Amino acid sequence: MTYTIPDEPTPTAQAKLAVRPMWPLFALMFVNTGISWLWFLANGFFQGSPYLKKEIGWIIVGLLGSTLAVFAIIAAFSQGIIDNTTIPYLLIVLTVWKLAISYKVFELQNRSFELFEYYQETISNGAIPFIAMVIVFQQFSLLQLLPSFIFLVLR
């Protein structure tokens, strides 16, 4: 019989690339949702999160919910159910949805990260890639690169 801790991570060979889960959460706030969710997935893989399947599931739910919400807003606007003055308020609901999903993923990763940090010799400084992302994404607008539907889902 082997004793295991339920929250114990199983680090991968790229464990030194793992950062504190707060950095992908900050990326959600200051960069965009798509980058944040990709970073959460990579970070969960790097640290060997025991909740990686749940994290992937929550991000898929987040993407599906965001896509459905944007589709519903566009459909309601084109049908004349809502007008231009209502759309900003509905986009706030979409933002809250993305924050809720991201916070759930953050909580799942943060559970095991302290154990990961305790047993690992070093972890990466998430401030460096975060600052780089903020600088890069301030230089160009995703709205110019992506169709508006995809932009709203990933914004």
From TrEMBL:
Keywords: Membrane, Transmembrane, Transmembrane helix. This is Uncharacterized protein. The keyword Transmembrane helix applies. The chain crosses the membrane at residues 25-46, 58-81, 87-106, 127-154. It comes from the Bacteria.
